[in-house]
Every structure is written in structure tokens, then in C-alpha cells.
Design a protein that fits this description.
This protein is α/β, with parallel strands linked by helices. The protein folds into two domains: about 160 residues, Rossmann fold, CATH 3.40.50; about 70 residues. It is built from nine helices and ten strands. Strands 6-7-8-3-9-10 form a six-stranded mixed beta sheet, sandwiched between helices. A four-stranded antiparallel beta sheet has the order 2-1-4-5. Bound molecules: adenosine-5'-triphosphate and magnesium ion. The site of adenosine-5'-triphosphate has 12 residues, from β2 and α1.
Amino acid sequence: MLETRDLTKVYDDTILAVNKLNLKVDPGEIYVILGANGAGKSTTIALLLNFIDPTSGTAFINEIEIPKFPLEAKKHLAYVSENVELYGNFTARQNLDFFAKLGGRKKVSRDELDATLGRVGLPEESFKRRVKTFSKGMRQRLGIAIAIIKRAEAVLLDEPTSGLDPKGGAEFLELLRQLKDEGKAIFMSTHDIFRAKAIADRVGIMAEGNLVRELTHEEIAEENLEELYLRYVAGYEQAEEAA
Ligand SMILES: Nc1ncnc2c1ncn2[C@@H]1O[C@H](COP(=O)(O)OP(=O)(O)OP(=O)(O)O)[C@@H](O)[C@H]1O
Ligand SMILES: [Mg+2]
């Protein structure tokens, strides 16, 4: 469903942020990408959303080549973040309606809008509040509501649980599990190894733009993910220094 082929990004002709990345996320799968600061996680997500163009290589959503058909591709993708793409002066309901239409939905009833906002756990009093008054967790929930109403097949999240309180973080993961059960492909970055282990079907470890290890569901359960992560990230740095 979501796939990268030798996806590469070089910033300013010098910084190799993502190096020939090949990965796939299937429907009903949660793929979690781990990596140190600067490993290339956000760049990967920005490439998948066509916020930036790849230097070489490409990516697909449902066979649609994202850099070539960005508008079509975006109908199938949803991006959940605390501040990008929400209109602060619009209410939650207006944002949801706007993005539903942008995502190709023709008519969305008020009932459906409100039911979706309720489903992601936003309190009713917030439906007609301007989004600029929302907390981080509320913005994230609205992002999930947009993904649901757009019927996006793939949902991309960049460190979605950072800064959420423990209860909010747990509820957020529960929402992601529901989306997965509906068959969506979910791709998220995090620094939270504990949560990665709790939710991931597959884990990728990135170091300096390279995907250095992928773990299956079974391996995630069996391995000490934290130790493995530290070994790969440290090992990669040592190997680089020796080279
Ligand atoms: N707009 C930009 N211009 C130039 N270099 C950039 C730009 N954005 C990111 N980089 C560089 O690309 C590399 C990868 O950055 P990226 O933000 O993708 O990492 P990350 O894995 O998301 O890190 P973090 O965990 O800190 O969020 C880093 O070396 C970073 O300095
Ligand atoms: Mg980042």
C-alpha cells in the first residue's frame, strides 16, 4: 500500500538525510520508525507527503507515484501532527468539513462530522471552538478525525505521542489500533521505545539516513528492543568513524 523505492533526499547538495530507503507498509499494519535525532525520520515522512521532493528514488501510495501525482496521492494519505495543516481560525467542525472535501468527500452531514469528533474523544463543547485554542492532544485527535473522515488508506504520524500526558498517550495508541483494525496502513516515528513495542507490527531502525534494521512482529516481542536500538545506533556511528 505505502512503499518507498530507493527514496533519497540530499539537502543543500551536502546533507544526505535519507539514503536509498526501501520499505513497505501493508494495510492493517503499524510500522514504527525509530532513530536518533537527525536520523531522517521526519524527512522520510515529509517525502511521503510530498512536502518536499526527493533527490532520487520515489514513493507510492496504492500504486500512485507520490512525487508525480501529489494531489491525487494526498487524497489517500492523512498526516497527523499538532500544528501542520489545521486552520487555527476555523472551528474543529469547520476544519473537519474542509479536509473531508479536500480529500474528495462530496457531502458530509453535520451528524457525521460530530460523530467523528466524538469518536476521537473530543468533548462536545470543543466542536465549535477555534482550533488555535486547542491543546496538543486535541489537535492530534482532530488529525485522527480528519484521517477517518477522508477515509485515507494511510496515516502518517511524526512523533505523535511526544508531549501527550500518559492517559492521552494511551488513548491515542488505542485510536491508532482502531484505525489499524479498519485496515489502514500506519507509519509513525517515535523516540518512545516502550510505546513502539506496545503498538508496532513492524519496527524500522534508522541511522544517518539508512534503514539499518527491520524487525518483524515476532522479533519485537522476543528481542530487547531498547538494547537492540542502542546497539544499532551506536554500532552504526562506530562503523562510520572507523570508515
Ligand atoms: N530543511 C532542511 N534543510 C537542511 N537540512 C535539513 C533540513 N531538514 C532536516 N535536515 C537535516 O537532515 C537530517 C535528517 O533530519 P530529520 O529532521 O529528518 O531527522 P529526524 O530523524 O526527524 O530527527 P529528530 O528525531 O530530531 O526529529 C539532519 O541532518 C538534519 O539536520
Ligand atoms: Mg523529526
